[in-house]
Predict the 3D structure of the following.
Amino acid sequence: MCAFFSSAASPAVRSALHRAWIAIVLAVSVASCASYAERTSEAFGDFERGQFERSFDAYQKPKTTGSEFLAGAESGTVAMADGRWDDAVRSFERAMAVSKEADREALISAENLGDFLLSWTLSESAKRYLGEGYERVLLHSCDALARLARGDLDGARVEARRANQLLESEETLYEKEYKAGGLGHFISALVYELDGKPDEAFIDYRRMRAKGVGLALANHALVRLGRILGRGEDVEAIEKENGTTSLPPSDSAQIVVIAGVGIGPYKRENTLTIPTLDGILQWSVPSFERRPITVGDLELSVVGGDQPVRTVVIEDVSVVARENLEDRLLLLSTKSALRAVLKRELTQKLEKEVGILGRIAGDLFAIATERADLRSWTTLPDTWQAARVFVPAGAHALRLAARGGETQELGRFELAPGETMFVLARTIGTRLYARPVGGNRIQGSTPAPAATLEPATRSGS
């Protein structure tokens, strides 16, 4: 563009065009300064305050996030916290429609090629956001959970399987094994148990054990199912490590808690600015910062029963997010360094053709545009946790407590022999939002008999 101005116009016209171009550069630079956290602050604030409907509506608007993927992902988790399972599924499907492009791993269109070039020449945040690898995995896991809540077992199984496939793809790409996938495996195992396929459920629990996620739940589920399936060697090996486990009566009902605890990590910027004689060199990459933890875990109490059952971590979102980002830092650093050199060359050319105004415009442009991409799925929990308790069939009063936060009386529920009831929960700060799914809510029932806890989830285990 500068070369065109130099050759195709008079000096006066060239000077006016240069000034106009510099103004445009500065305007673009200023416009690029708003971070993702700043753009979404109102929607995120409403989410933190429990004003879920307002937060959902705000995140649904493309201008809030500037990304179709994040619009769907963020609004989906807000809807889940609010117990709106259908809205959650629709939102997650919106995000999936975008993330499929990233999953194909190929630049198959001119638009994708433009995104690719922009990320190498202008800024990481200049390209469309298709979701980080760990986010695309959790997208399918969250969708599986929302489908499970609305009774769509087939859909839950499919999405849990897709989450596992994407996780394996990420692990192959970065040649490492993430301590992740527990949420997807646990949902898949639950669905198989509900379908009467203990052999398939056993495989998912064994994968949790192999990855070291949700070990307390996985180990005791493996013993329970291993005895049913006649897998004596597996049972013996696990009990040798963890002690003997007693089986619940065959006609027991069970209550399963799956909870998103806390709010997940956020990206912060790490920037190095180096003034040189030829212009500014600025290098900038993101890192993840874990938020303060208010609630450590949850306790489910069967009133009049045994001691409370505590949740255990089955997916540490903050740890996985940080590890996934660290595996891409070399590429991000390389691209930032290359962009810094290209922008300095632009500054040199502007200074040569326009003078000091060109130098100022180039430096400001470099400073404003060489920023780390701080976009991320911010409404995810810090951890996903789960617990299971077996109880005799009949009426039970339930209480759920966020240790370090609120307690909720869930009510009394009649459970049939062999029935599985879910309590899907979310903590945000000290607040607790719990959504019972299944069971028959009753009033004025007789006191519940003592509960039998699955030892894997006993308080203090």
Notes: The chain has 18 helices and 13 strands. The first helix runs from residue 2 to 8. Residues 1-31 form one domain.
